[in-house]
């Protein structure tokens, strides 16, 4: 009886020893798992920190590049503004020069036109001066013939009224032109022309016509001298240049 109890006691002790070993194994295993987890988390934190550091460095580098690019852009904008101002000044200068050249070219064209060196086309009028009808009662034939002073009156009035170019029977007049009377014909710059004398002028037709038709003006004076006076307005008149010297 006593022997059986001892055997039971030994079995109980054995059971307790197994529990201790199992507990020790679990403890060691738990410590290893905890250490491994801790080590893993530490490595993750380190990796995360390194990654974060790399991102921060990259972000800082990109920010520095962006700031440098902005500074470069500001410098380029200032330089562009200077260049634009320079271009504007050059354009103003060229515009003044172009205007001056245009005025010179325009003046040269006018001078060539007055000198009869270029063909002229435009609106104007045609004035015809013809000898008066023969009157046997008039002993002096010159009293109904067209003379150079009659032509002068018309030409001078047309120039005063703004005529740009004038021709007599198609022959252009210049500032050096001269007109002489030789019986029934007149001589323009050495070229003889018989009556009727057609005086063609380029200019504003209304202005030129009104100047000649003034009461007591050129037309009335010529009619009083028995000259047949006719006036015609034209929308397009062409005067050829003077050929040769």
Description of the molecule:
The protein has 245 residues and is α+β, with helices and mostly antiparallel strands. The chain has 2 domains: 92 residues; 118 residues, 2-Layer Sandwich (Alpha-Beta Plaits). Helix content is 58%, strand content 19%. The protein has 4 helices and 8 strands. The protein has a 5-stranded antiparallel β-sheet with strand order 3-2-7-1-8. The protein has a 3-stranded antiparallel β-sheet with strand order 4-5-6, with no helix packed on it. Strand 5 and strand 6 form a beta hairpin. The radius of gyration is 58 Å and the shape is rod-shaped. The mean pLDDT is 81.
Task: Set down the secondary structure blueprint.
Blueprint: H1 2-114, E1 120-130, H2 148-160, E2 165-168, E3 171-172, E4 179-182, E5 185-188, E6 191-194, E7 197-202, H3 205-212, H4 218-224, E8 228-239
Antiparallel strand pairs: 1-7, 1-8, 2-3, 2-7, 4-5, 5-6
